Amino acid sequence: MRVTMIGTGYVGLVSGACFADFGHEVVCVDKDETKIEKLEAGVMPIYEPGLEALVAENVKAGRLSFSTDLTSVPNADAVFIAVGTPSRRGDGFADLSYVYNASEEIARVLEGYTVVVTKSTVPVGTGTEVEQIIKKTNAGAEFSVVSNPEFLREGAAIQDFKRPDRVVVGAEDDRAIKVMRELYRPLYINETPIVFTNRSTSELIKYAANAFLATKITFINEVADLCEKVGANVQEVAKGIGLDGRIGSKFLHAGPGYGGSCFPKDTLALVRTAQSVNAPARIVETVVEVNDARKKQMADRVIAACGGSIEGKTIGVLGLTFKPNTDDMRDSPAIDIVSALQSAGAKISAYDPAGVEEAKLVLNDVDYVEGPYQALEGADAVVIITEWDEFRALDLERVKSLMKAPIMVDLRNIYRPAEMAEHGFEYSSIGRPA
Question: pTM score, two decimals?
Answer without folding.
Answer: 0.94
